[in-house]
Amino acid sequence: MSKSIYRFFEYAYILMAAAAAYIVITHWETDRGRAYLFGFFGIVAIFMFLFKRWFRKRLEKRNQDQ
Fold first, then answer.
1. What is the model's pTM?
2. DSSP H or E segment with residue 28
3. CA-based angle 60:45:63, to the nearest 5?
4. In total, how many domains does the chain have?
5. What is the pLDDT of residue 52?
6. How far is CA 61 from CA 4, 10, 15, 54, 64, in A?
7. Residue 12 falls inside a structural domain
8. Looking at residue 5, what is its pLDDT?
């Protein structure tokens, strides 16, 4: 896969985290359970962004060394 596809999916996770943060903010007063659920999804999305970024950089370094 090309680097641009990896980068696209990285930033898609950031967009998902932003959407989850928006849902948390808008539902905090009315539905606290849903807000906690989407807060968890936001944290997982940020973790996935960081993991995918680390993995992509590792692959790029491996390809440069070969």
1. 0.84
2. none
3. 5
4. 1
5. 93
6. 16, 17, 26, 11, 5
7. yes
8. 85
Measured distance CA(45)–CA(23) in Å, rounded:
14
**Residue 66 forms part of a structural domain:** no
Give the pLDDT confidence of 14-63 residue by residue, as tens digits: 999 999 999 999 999 999 999 999 999 999 999 999 999 999 899 889 98
State residue 48's pLDDT score.
Answer: 96
For residue 60, the one-letter residue type is: E
From CA 33, how far away is CA 28, in angstroms rounded? 8
**Amino acid residing at 55:** F
Domain of 45 in residue numbering reads as 3-61
The answer to whether residue 50 is domain-embedded is yes
